[in-house]
């Protein structure tokens, strides 16, 4: 945005799990305001003169357990409400872009050979402990085939983090509907990776967790059997999607921000370990699991291509070659 001649203001609270100081890579032409999105006074001051908002503020990741629930709701939902209240008081009528997530879908889309499209129930601890990781058809018990998911699919968040991200979408959509002239775009990021991700934190994405392990000389620990399918998208592509969304006009809408080329978690870990260089430990498939995790979820990016003009440009092999050597926060 700076390169396009726009004035840019960044609001960041420097959450320790992400980073603790002003990043050296921040464009010096961008104004930095240090403060918390849950603080009404800070938000009001940061919005002074602002004509467009790109809302990325959130506590991310699955979390450790349900004791994280208060923090997720406070940062993600109360923070969003404070932002929208401040925008309403200022009569904001510009574009609003929300960083949402693929976690709002819960499990991805599945088909049964006998019963067609079906919605599997949440996986049980008993099945996971027995190594039965793939969901079965709720009608006949047969294995299901995963399919790419579109934005109109039913939303079924299956973790506290996912529930807060869906609530962010609801709040922003309602704000746009009640304030004529506001264009609200929710970008449902899939598995984002790339340079400057935080290291050594359980709240980071899986790629960052694996990269932190390799940097410490440890083998990436791949949960379940490693066959979980995800759509990995490079952070540079995500940034470009945000710029395109800021130019969008029209009613509230959500878009998958994804590559359209799903890969397994184990494949990603193997690529990353190979690119880390000679002597890097190979990934270890552990059979561990987390109840809040879903098995397969990957995207159909067709709507983003048709309506935003967005298509991911960085493939997984190219991106992992860079990420394996990139600096982490």
Description:
The protein has helices at 40-46, 69-89, 125-129, 160-178, 206-215, 235-246, 265-275, 302-308, 316-323, and strands at 9-12, 31-34, 53-55, 95-101, 109-112, 116-118, 145-147, 183-189, 191-193, 221-222, 229-230, 232-234, 253-257, 263-264, 284-285. With 329 residues, the chain is an alpha/beta fold. The strands form six sheets. A four-stranded parallel β-sheet has the order 3-4-8-13, sandwiched between helices. A three-stranded antiparallel β-sheet has the order 6-5-7, with no helix packed on it. α2 (69-89) runs parallel beside α4, α5 packs parallel to α7 and α7 crosses α9. The radius of gyration is 20 Å and the shape is globular.
Termini, distance in Å? 23 Å
Summarize the helix and strand pattern as letters.
EEHEHEEEHEHEEHEEEHEEHEHH
Radius of gyration, Cα only, in angstroms? 20 Å
Q: Please estimate the helix content.
A: 25-40%
% residues in beta strands: 15-25%
Judging from the principal axes of the Cα atoms, what is the shape? globular
Order of the strands making up the biggest sheet: 3-4-8-13
Contiguous low-pLDDT stretches (5 residues minimum) are none
**Overall SS class:** alpha/beta
Query: Could you describe the largest sheet, including whether it forms a barrel?
Result: 4 strands, parallel
Mean of all residue-level pLDDT scores:
91
Tally of individual helices: 9
Number of strands: 15
């Amino acid at each position: 945005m700076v390169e396009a001649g726009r004035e840019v203001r960044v609001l960041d609270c420097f959450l320790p799990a992400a980073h603790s100081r002003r990043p050296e890579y921040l464009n010096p032409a961008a104004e930095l305001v240090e403060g918390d999105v849950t603080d009404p006074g800070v938000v009001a001051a940061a919005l002074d003169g602002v004509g467009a908002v790109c809302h990325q503020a959130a506590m991310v990741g699955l979390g450790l357990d349900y004791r994280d629930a208060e923090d997720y709701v406070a940062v993600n939902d109360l923070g969003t409400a404070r932002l929208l209240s401040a925008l309403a008081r200022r009569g904001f009528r510009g574009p609003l872009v929300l960083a949402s997530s693929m976690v709002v879908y819960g499990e991805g889309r599945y088909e049964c050979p006998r019963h067609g499209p079906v919605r599997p129930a949440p996986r049980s601890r008993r099945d996971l402990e027995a190594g039965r990781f793939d969901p079965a058809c709720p009608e006949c018990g047969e294995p299901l085939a995963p399919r790419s998911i579109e934005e109109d699919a039913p939303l079924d968040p299956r973790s506290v983090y996912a529930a807060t991200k869906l609530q962010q979408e609801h709040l922003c959509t309602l704000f746009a509907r009640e304030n004529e002239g506001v264009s609200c775009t929710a970008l449902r990021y899939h598995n984002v990776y790339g340079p400057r991700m935080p290291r050594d934190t359980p709240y980071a994405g899986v790629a960052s967790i694996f990269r932190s392990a390799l940097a410490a000389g440890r083998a990436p620990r791949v949960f379940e059997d490693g066959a979980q399918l995800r759509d990995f998208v490079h952070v540079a592509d995500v940034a470009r999607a945000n710029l395109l969304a800021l130019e969008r006009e029209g009613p509230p809408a959500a878009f998958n921000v994804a590559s359209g080329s799903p890969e397994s978690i184990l494949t990603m870990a193997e690529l990353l370990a190979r690119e880390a260089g000679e002597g890097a430990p190979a990934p270890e498939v552990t059979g561990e699991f987390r109840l809040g995790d879903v098995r397969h979820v990957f995207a159909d990016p067709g709507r983003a291509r048709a309506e935003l003009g967005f298509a991911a440009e960085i493939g997984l092999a190219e991106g992992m070659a860079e990420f394996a050597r990139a600096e982490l926060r």
